[in-house]
Design brief:
Elements: H1 5-8, H2 21-49, H3 52-80, H4 94-122, H5 129-150, E1 158-160, E2 166-168, H6 173-202, H7 207-234, H8 240-251, E3 256-267, E4 270-279, H9 285-291, E5 298-307
Parallel strand pairs: 4-5
Antiparallel strand pairs: 1-2, 3-4
């Protein structure tokens, strides 16, 4: 069916990808490549030197490579299907699904590290301190480079719409998941280096598994935070900051009462809202939309209007 000119003026797409979607995808691909190369290097070095520590870390890094690969694939899938009508509100939340999956992988990694560390605490094993330290330092360097590649768009920043409150900008949970995996690797490398040096020069062999347990706890905490935030998006929880702003803009003049309000995230920078109002006779649906124009996060707005 061909839309009339008037109908066409109201038509809109459902492209709710983040402003830095493609750039974040390229960054993540670079990190996947670095992680994969480092993984191969550690596994090869482990076989050559006979170091079980290096082999274990290499296979541990393989889990991160898989998780980072999920993040990169999510960026590609979201871009390819951005205009697919099968997705009612676009593919802006594909990254949150990938973030949730990565958080689960990260949680399993933390359990594996904790279990292996507890076992080694009671059953100490021989550690190739020199080889393991060299590889750990190289791994840390790779993680630092990867962190710089991913840094910049994963955090929060505040902004003001000219009202009495500021609220946080929701970040890209897919990029955040990749960033957390890199931080987890960096943390384990730092703790490993400290433990290996202490073991080599002070004879504190017990410090290696203790550091492993500490790292596992920190990683588990990061995984829980990422899982909680991405699950909230997937379950369409109400964005209270935007909802509060909508209530303020509509009800403050005193001629509109909100009877029902739904506000949820459909992309890293996009929110959708369904607003049901009971308004004075002189307040039209178009007037409601004009009042909500300052809410820049609103990318999809449905207004149900009833006259009081």
């Amino acid at each position: 069916m061909t839309l009339t000119p008037q109908a066409s003026s109201f038509a809109h797409d459902h492209m709710f990808l983040g402003a830095s979607h493609d750039e974040n995808g390229r960054r993540t691909l670079w990190v996947v490549a670095l992680t994969f190369v480092m993984m191969i290097g550690e596994i090869a070095a482990g076989y050559v030197t006979g170091s079980m520590a290096l082999l274990a870390d290499g296979f541990h890094m393989a889990t991160h490579a898989v998780a980072l690969g999920i993040a990169a694939a999510a960026y590609g899938f979201a871009r390819r299907h951005a205009n697919n009508e099968r997705f009612s509100f676009g593919t802006g939340k594909v990254g949150d699904l990938a973030g949730f999956a990565s958080a689960m992988v990260l949680g399993l990694v933390s359990l594996g590290i904790a279990g292996e560390s507890i076992l080694r605490l009671f059953q100490p094993t021989t550690v190739a301190f020199t080889e393991a330290t060299i590889i750990a330092v190289v791994g840390l360097a790779v993680n630092i480079v990867s962190a710089f590649l991913l840094a910049g768009n994963h955090g929060h920043h505040g902004h003001d719409h000219g009202h009495s409150h500021d609220h946080a900008h929701h970040h890209d949970n897919n990029l955040r998941s990749a960033y957390v995996h890199v931080l987890a690797d960096a943390l384990t490398s730092i703790l490993a280096i400290a433990a290996l040096l202490a073991g080599r020069y002070l004879g504190w062999v017990w410090l290696d598994p203790v550091m492993g347990i500490v790292g596992a706890v920190v990683i588990a905490k990061w995984a829980y935070g990422l899982m909680r935030d991405s699950a909230a998006v997937l379950l369409d929880t109400t964005d209270e900051h935007v909802a509060e702003e909508i209530r303020e803009l509509l009800e403050t003049p005193g001629d509109v009462t909100i009877s029902d309000l739904h506000v949820w995230q459909v992309g890293p920078d996009a929110r959708a809202a369904i607003v049901s109002v009971v308004a004075a006779a002189n307040v039209t649906a178009d007037a409601i939309r004009e009042r909500l124009a300052p809410v820049h996060e609103l990318s999809h707005l449905t207004v149900e209007h009833r006259t009081a």
